[in-house]
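hi!! sorry for the late reply, been swamped w classes. u asked for the two structures so here they r. pasted raw, havent cleaned anything up. first the sequence of the first protein and right below it the C-alpha cells
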Amino acid sequence: SSGINAEYGDVSEFCEDSVHLFIESCYKGAMLDMVKENFRYLFTISNKLKVGWLMKECEKFYSHTVKQLNNNSDNAELAFAFEEAEYQTMAFKKKTFQNCLDNKLNSKSLSPFRGDIIQSYLGDFICLSKSKLELCQAVVRSDHHILVEALIVYLEEHSDKVVQTVKNCEWFFKNTYKDFMKKNFELSRRLLCVICAARVKAGSNDLEFILLAIDRLFSLELPLGYGRLQVGNIDSVQACLHFKVDDEEPMIAVNPILLCINSPVIKSLVTDQHQNILEADDFSRAAVECFAEACYTGKPETVTVDNFQDVFKMSHAFKVDWLKKKCELFFSNYVDTKFNQSCNYDDFVFAVDLALFQMEKLKEGSFLSLIISAASSNILPSTRTKYIQQYLGDFETQSTCKIDICIALIRSDVCLILESLIQHLQNPEVKCLNEKSRYLLNKLDLSVCFRKKPELRKVLFSALRNLTEVDREDFRLILELCERLSETLGS
C-alpha cells in the first residue's frame, strides 16, 4: 500500500477490500475471488503497477464473461461488458476488451440482437460521452443503421429533447453518416420527421441550430415529401410560427422548421428578423393551409380552382420554386380541360386573370402562351371574340398589360379593339388623346386593321381630326402614324 502511494499517490479510489485482495493475490501468485464488483479496481491496479500476470487474469475474466453473453443476458451483464471495454480504451488507450466485445456482438448468436443491445446501452443520448459513442461506432462496424435507428427511437420517445440531443450528437454529422443517409431514404425520412417535430420558437437560436443541422446531415431535394404534419398540430403556441390571415379569425399555426426548409424568404423572416407571426391578409385561409400542407407533404394535394390563385401567389412571394412549378402544371391541365368549344366565360376569365397576374407581377408569359394556343385551337372564333370584348370592357379603365393580353388573344380580329378606340374618340366629350388612347394607337398594327377593313382608316382619322385640344405630343404621334401607314399601305 505504501509503495502504491509513493509512486501513484492516493489509492483512496480503490475500496479497502480490493486493495487487500490485490496484495493477498500477489503474495500467493494467483488471483483470488475476482468478481464483477471488484474487477475495475483490480484491472486498474494491475495496469498502473504493470503486474503482467494479473493483467492477463483480468483479460481472461473479461473474455470469459463476454463469451457467456446471449440474447437473454440481463442489463447488468451487458453494462459490465460495454463499460469495461469503454473504460480500457479511455483510461489505457487499449482495445483488447473492445475487440473481444466486437467479436461477440458480431457472432452468429448475438448479431441479430445487436441493435437492441446497443440501443439499451446507449440510453440517454443527451448525456452520451464521446468514448461511449466511439465504442458503439466500432462494434457496429459498417452497419450504421443500428446507431441511426437507436437515435430515431430515442427522439420519437423524447420529442422535447430533440434540440439538446442533436447538439450532443455532433459525431453524427460526419461525412460517413451523411453519405449513409443519402442512400437510405426511409431512415432519412424518419429522422428528418422527428427533427422537424422539435419544439423550437420562431426566431430562436435553437431554430437556427436545427436548420443548420438539417443542412449538414441531409442532402435535401425539394419538395421533401417526408410525410404529413397537419396544420396547427403544434402542442405549444409559443413554439411555432403563425400566419395571421384575418383579425377576426384564429391564426394558423405551422411548423417553422419545414417552412424554413422550403422557403428562403420565410427562413430570413424567422431567423434574421426574428418574426414569429407572418402577415397573410392578402391570401385566403384555405390557400394558407394548402400552402403549409404542401410544404409538409411535398404535394399540393388540396389546390382547387378557388384557392389556386392565392397558392400560386404565395409560392412566388415566398420563393417556393417547386410549388410554383406544381401550380404551373395545375394551370396547364386546367387550360387543357376547360378551353374547348363548350368553354364558359367564368373559366375563360379565371385563366386570363392568372395570365394577367403572371405578366404584371412576375414578368412571365407562360400562362398567356398556353391560353393563346388553347383558345385559338379549341374555342370558336365568335365565342373567343365575345369573351374578349366582355373581358376588356372599357379600355380606358384597364391596365396596359390587360390591353396587351386582349390584343394577343384576339389575334387577327384586332379590328374589334380599334373599333372600340374609334368609338371612344367619337365621343363629343373627348377633346384629346389620353394615355390609353396613345398606347393603343402605338400598340395596334393599324395596317392589318385597314387591310381587313379599309373603311376604318377614314373613320379613325376623321375622329382624330375632330379632337379640339391636340397638344404637341398628340400631333407628333399622329404624324408618326401617317408615316408608318404610308410606308406599309402607300398613300
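now the second protein. again sequence first, C-alpha cells right under
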Amino acid sequence: MAVLLETTLGDIVVDLYPEERPRCCLNFLKLCKIKYYNYCLFHSIQTDFMAQTGDPTGTGKGGASIFSKLYGDQAKYFEMETSPRIKHTKKGAVSMVNNGSECHGSQFFFTLAENLDYLDGQHTVFGEVSEGMEILMKINEAICDKENRPYQDIRINHTVILDDPYDDPKGLEIPDRSPEPSKEQLESGRIGADEEIDDTKGMAAEEVEERFKEKEAKAKAQILEMIGDLPDADVKPPENVLFVCKLNPVTTSEDLEIIFSRFGKINSCEVIKDKVTDDSLQYAFIEFEREEDCEEAYFKMDNVLIDERRIHVDFSQSVAKVNKQGKVVWEHQKPDGRPQYKIKDQTSRQSKKYDLVLDDDVPSSSKSESRSRHRHGDSEERVSSKKPKRRKSSESESSDSEQERRRKDQKKKKRRDSSSEDEDRNRRKDSSREDRDRRDRHRGQEDRRERSYRDEDRYRGKDRERGKDRERDSRGDSRKDKYRDRDGDRYGGRSRDRYRDERDRR
C-alpha cells in the first residue's frame, strides 16, 4: 500500500503500515483520495529534524481527519494508535502529528534525521519514504525564518494512490478531478513556489560579473555618502570635464586654457598645485561649456606633445565639486581667470565681528576708509583708557573690604596647610632617620658577630697546629730515649766514640 506525493520540488513515494496502523493509514489514504492535501504548504521545516505539512490553512493550527467528513465536527480528531510500538529510528519516517491531547487530525511530518527517540510515544509512525529521498533532502536544505517557515513556498501539488486495500466509507464524496486552488490558498505572503529567485539564470558569465560589480559599486557609494565623502550615492561625475595628466611642471593653467580653447568655450581650467610649495602636481581639470566640445578635445588631444611631454587626456571621474543637483561648483574666480580658494562657512568658528575680506573684492577707496577708521578707533581706545577712574560707592567699598577679608582668610588657611605639610614632612624625615640608624646598628652588630666567629675559627686552627707540634716533639724524645738506652747497654753506659778510643788503646 503506497501513495505518491507530487511536490513543487519533486515526487515522493510513501509506503504505509496498514497492519500496524490501520486507522492512521485509512485516514491518510481517504484524505489523499478526496484531494484534501492538494496545495498544502510545508509550513514548518526544521533542518535535520522534521518537515511538517497536511494543514490546508498553512498555519499549523488547522486540519481535520476523514471522519469529520462522515460524522461531523465531533469526529474531527481520532485517538492515537500506540501498539505495536514503532520508533522514529529511520530517516524519512512518516508520522501523524499529536494535537496535544493524544489525538490526530490531518497533519503529518517526515523525519529528516535518524534516531529521534524523543518523538516516540508522542507521535504515531504509520509509514516511510521508499522513493524520493533526494527530494526530502532538498526540503531539508530550504532557507527558513526564525519560525521555521520557508521563505519560498514548498507545496504538495497532487496526491496519487498507488494501492488502497480499504473500501470507501458510505457517504464519502470523492471528486472526479483535482480541484483548482483558490486565491486565498495560493497567497501565503512568501515567494511563490513557481517564482524564479535566481536573477542570473540564463545570463552569461560576463553579464553576471558586470552586475556584481555594479552592486558592489553602489554599496561602496552608499558607505561614502554616510561618512560624508559623497554628496549623494547616485551622484555621477560631470561629462563636460576633462582630466589631463603627465604634464610638464612648467605648464600653467593659462597655457592649457589657450591650447584647449580651440575646441570650444572653457568655463574653468585649473592645474593642481601643492599647497605648501606651490609646485605643479602635473595634472589638471578642464571644464567645457558644452559636452560635444569636451568629447572632441578628448579624442584629439590624447598623447599630444605639450612642453616636451606627451600628455594623457581622459574624462574626469572626480565628484569633489559636484553638488546634489549634479552641477559643478567652482571656487571664486579672479579677474585673470585663475581660481581662488574661499572659506565656505565663515560663521562656524569665526566671530561675527570679524569677516574675511578678499583684496580683489574691496575697492581702493573703501580700503583707505577702513584703514583711517581703524586708526581712529585705536586712538579713541587709547584716550578712553587714559580717562580717570570714578570713585567707588559705599556699596562697592564694602564689597571690596569683604573680598579683602576673604582673601586674608584664604592666605591664613594656606599658611596653616603649608605649616601642617612641613610638620608632616619633618616627621617623615625623623622617622626615616631613625629607621636608617636602626639598620646601621643592626648591620654593625652582625659584622662584629661574624668577625668574632672568624677569629675563633682561626685561633682554633692555631691550637690544633700547636698540639700537633707538641705531639711530634714528644714522639721524637721517646725515640731518642729508646736509642739511648739501647746504646748504653751495648757500650756499657759509655758513648760510642769513647768506647772506640778505649778499644784502640788496647
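hope this helps!! also noticed smth abt the second:
The first helix runs from residue 22 to 33.
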